[in-house]
Amino acid sequence: MSYVKGLKCRECGAQYKLEAVAICEECFGPLEVYYDYEAIKTKLTREEIAGRQKTMWRYRELLPLENDPTVGLNTGCTPLVRAARLAKALGVGELFIKNDAVQHPTLSFKDRVVAVALSKAREFKFEAVGCASTGNLANSVAANAAAAGFPAYILIPDNLEKSKITATQIYGANVVPVKGNYDDVNRLCSEIAGRYPIAFVNVNLRPFYGEGSKTFGYEIAEQLGWQAPDAVVVPMAGGSLITKIYKAFGELSKIGLIEEAQTRFFGAQAAGCNPIAAAVKAGTRDIRPVKPNTIAKSLAIGNPADGYFATGVITNTGGWSEDVTDAEIISAMKLLAETEGIFTETAGGTTLAVTKKLIEQGRLSAKDRIVIAITGNGLKTQEALTLEDLKSIEPKLSAFESAAGFTRAVTAAA
Ligand SMILES: [Zn+2]
Hints:
- It is a single chain.
- Helix 5 (136-148) links the parallel strand 6 (128-132) and strand 7 (152-157).
- Helix 10 packs across helix 12 (307-316) and helix 13 (326-340) crosses helix 14.
- The strands form three sheets. This protein has a six-stranded mixed sheet, with helices on both faces. A four-stranded parallel sheet has the order 8-7-6-9, with helices on both faces.
- It is an alpha/beta fold.
- Helices cover 39% and strands 15% of the residues.
- The structure holds zinc ion.
- The site of zinc ion (ZN) has 8 residues, from loops.
- Residues 9, 11-12, 14, 24, 26-27, 29 line the site of zinc ion.
């Protein structure tokens, strides 16, 4: 049974039936799914959730499907890691990492949104699916489409990391590199969706796709013992994820699973693509598009679709947004790996580097319970890193001792 009531315009409130549409006909505002929270409240209790499988579908009443899900059945319930060594290095008290870099099947949080979007594509009886992507979404649509038996049409900017392209091609998807940036790719996908019956998960299925991100927030609250954190730091590309974590905490309080959240929301961007951070710093919600130039390619969206709403969430909750240089991103990737054993992609490096900056600015303090969102795996963006060249040794004990700086005396004593 479904608790979905329909689609509603986020700008003017006009209501629509459940169809594969994303834009309001009246005002061109984005559409959003809305639910019967009163009915959900009577069904979805903490005990009910605790008795269910450890996947994102344990919160299925809050997701926009009419029937049981058919795609991505094992997705979700990633670890919330207490990062004590990292907290010490940064000088804060309680720091947690919500680690979606270990998400199945493709090592990023996009598996959540794709599970919902492709299940919805099947309910709408689409025979083919697609996406505009900076890499992680491409990986996820390709993998989930293969497993579900959908042909997939995946359009990407042609300058993506090689490993992200490989991890899309391997699933047999139709991968089309486009000369241009993400914003050009997205425009082209809208044109194709207008002419062909392809379910583009982040274009014509956008209202449904975005709902999958809420599970990232539900899990954080459940893993903290049904409490919202004091602060979350979230990477921002199109700006959707930060608004959906906000929505998730709001919904949980609406149905009585947590107390009203007092969480401050902080957005992370790279200096080479910072339209949302720039707007927050300028005290406006109007986004001025930029031309991206950063190693954090998964965040390289110059004209973010949800930028206006992301700045709203940040300013209305008393948060802030910062941006960091490529050098700061790489150094944060190393810090996370060396302190917590977590290898994140450049987006995670951006999030951690921004967290560090927020602590230095006094916007986050030792009193705060902080969660940082790590949304993708470092194996995908290794090209961004240059590490020290390693020297080979002869296969001899003496050669190892001299390379490791051991002396004979130390070896003998041990
Ligand atoms: Zn409208």
